Amino acid sequence: MNLKISKATESDAEVIALLGRITFDDSMGDLFVDKEELLNYYEKEFSLEKTVLSIKDSNNIYWIARYNGVPVGYLKLKMDSKIGFSTSKNISEINRVFVLKDYLSKGVGNQLHQVLMEEIENMSTEVLWIRILEDNVPAQNFYTKQGFQKKINQLYSVSRYDLKFEIFLKEVK
Question: Is the whole-model pTM more than 0.85?
Answer without folding.
Answer: yes
